[in-house]
Specification:
The structure holds 2 protein chains of 2 kinds. Chain A has 15 helices and 17 strands. Chain A is an alpha+beta fold. Chain A has 2 domains: about 230 residues, Metalloenzyme, LuxS/M16 peptidase-like (Cytochrome Bc1 Complex, Chain A, domain 1), CATH 3.30.830.10; about 180 residues, Cytochrome Bc1 Complex, Chain A, domain 1 (2-Layer Sandwich). Chain B is an alpha+beta fold.
Chain lengths: ~425, ~425
Amino acid sequence: MIRAYYPELDETLYRETLENGLPVLVIPRKGFTKKIAYFVTDYGSIHRDFTLEGQEYHAPAGVAHFLEHKLFDLPGERDVSAEFASMGASTNAFTSYDMTAYYFSCTEHFDDCLKLLLEFVSTPYFTDESVAKEQGIIDQEIGMNEDASDSRVFENLMQALYHAHPIRVPILGTSATIREITPQVLETCHRAFYTPENMLLCVVGDVEPEQVAKIARQVLGTDHRPAGVKQYLWQEDMTRPKEEVSLSMEVAMPMFSLGFKCESLGKGEQAIREEMVADLAAEALFGESSELYLKLYEDGLIDSSFGGGFETIDGCAMLLCSGDSDNPHAVRDAIVAQGEKIAAQGLEEEAFLRMKRSALGRRIRGLDSFDATCFRVCAYHFSDFDYFRFPEIYRDIQPKEICDFLGRVVRADRCSLSIINPISSNPIGG
Amino acid sequence: MIETISLSPGVTLRCCRDDRFKQGCLSVQLVRPMTRQESAANALLPSVLLRGTVSCPDLRAITLRLDTLYGASVSPLVRRVGDYQTTGLYCGFMDDRFALPGDAVLQPMVKFLEELLLDSPVENGGFLETFVESEKKNLISTIESERNDKRVYAMSRLLKILCREDSFGLSRLGEPEQVSTITPKGLYDHYQQILRSSTMELFYVGSAESSRVAQLLKPMLSRIRRQWQPLSPQTGFHPCPGDNVVEIMDVAQGKLGMGFVTPITNRDSRFPAMQVLNTLFGGGMTSKLFVNIREKHSLCYSIGSAYYGAKGIVTVSAGIDFDKEAQTREEVLAQLKACQDGCITPEELTAAKEAVLSSLRATHDSPGAIEGYYATAALSTLNLTVPEYMSAVAKVTMGDVVAAARELKLHSTYFLKGESQ
């Protein structure tokens, strides 16, 4: 494996791409007892259109998440979670818009846990009965989600911001779309996106890097199969279909989610730099130590539920904030005005350095968390960037970049507001 | 691995020098006897200190200061350790090794800690009324939300019955009625007094040498005119007659609490055996209580035991239907009897020892866990480092566990049941 050392972070990273196309990353942490492994595919809920072996496919919404649930089944009624538990380990998985991750954490029996992780994720086993049963389970999850105001406020915002991007559809899909899922659909998607070259294995802990690669070769073999090719059939400009969308639900107080549409970032170093600029811009605009945050807080327009940041997903990006407020319109107007003000006046050098330092420090402290590190390393790897290079990117960022970003993005014509009003009170807005 | 330095009478700095982490921590605790008179004030104090200083007069100024310190954090620290209550602050911050060239974190962090502890804004001889009043509200709502959790509530009621003769029955954060009587001046005077007279424990985890940490703390400590009053040593369980209390409330599920006492505290060489016994008896999904009472007999929704080593108390808590009380109680005693009679399989013993070892192993994986273990161990007089503790657990035999089980005596029970049935 190739070893790289990052003196600024005192981190070491081993990497190798196996014969079968699987990139393996190992971050050794000498002297720690905990060990974790993430086996991740560059495939999420939005990747519904693809070609595989010359054929075109359009999968129903919710397949990626459905597949995540079903991969925990193994032939012979084996219970994957119980097998991890018997080794004193715990396992779990999640599906996002553009990535699906399976992981475990253990202190002992690392090799056996790793074998089991690789085995269960790479073994498709779907029957008509198990798929029908899962439809019931996921349908309930969808039902619960429909009652969850924080999911609804976000999903409504996505529909207001985007014309066609598949982020308009919830990760879970809908009751109707999951009924279209069959064992065959699951097998096709597994074949397309769970091939080693579309995946990534990342391990953090006091382990022998070569041993990780060896186990991955043993379990996954050396066959190199081409992955499905994702099709991006939609087009998005920077306009948004709706300025505002609202709904009434059983909530104690109105809640809102506010989004500003941003240009999609693409991949590589330039993209990561833009992401870090946008993160800092969000801090400067409405972060906890910003001028605006304190003012809105003191005016009673937001409370401690308020928060936000920059989000980037394959094919789209946005600046978001959300919280409870009696007057979401006033919050929106204040944010737009503050964005214009910072863009026009610029940032004080001292305030800018303080912000940069804080963001850098928090990222560095975050490296003590094995899970956060593993997640970030995987996500950045899929964006073709080596996460441990973040200090040099930060060092380079100039205040002007923050102001340019805010000037370009924080504008009324790029913004949508999603509101959930309490039932039986005077509604806010339309 | 832990270096202990006495900085002045009653002021101890403990350092764990470790460069595996990106972040370090520094905690300061004033150690008080747990009493009804001051527990609420001690619980309130750190939150008031964190509201502002003379140079950082509001929350935003504090956040900005922490931003300058590479996104550091400071939080209130209020603990109960046996007969003691501690009150203080916990700082988490990036290690100096990662600061920009010529920059540092630890030194300005200590300086800021000094400000938080010693430079609070003062009016009319007390803390600012606005700070005190809003933090009183927060504390009362924290105490009340703990009360709303019926499992926690039942356990605190059991401890009150069990510990009528000692402070272990008092609520860790005080009672709402005590919080509401606190005045800005009263709290300020109390703070000045305990700052001078209390045992003070400082704990550092990070890459700096202990001598340097001691040096950095000196200016702060020299500003306090210390008149140390040593604490009475920790004591075991104070005997009182047992009792069985039933309380009726509008709840859907009954909560049974059973309190056992033992002369084995963490100052006893049999402590590791008692810890293993507790795990085997009721500490998890392979324990006798869980396997037999929940899985086999389906008598309860939840069941588990806890061992308070600083005091020598074991409690069992179970969530049950109202009509299952007598049966559950009998079955818990039957499982304890099985332990006392040596009806324990080698597999049960191994699983229990492995569970204790595994949680100890994780202690060295984070600065917070290291601080939590050693800062608490020092106060409860648990004189074992983690490796020593682990090797003692590994040596525990079947005979040791049986002997520990025989030292457990049922003292009192508490049952919270619903109005119906």
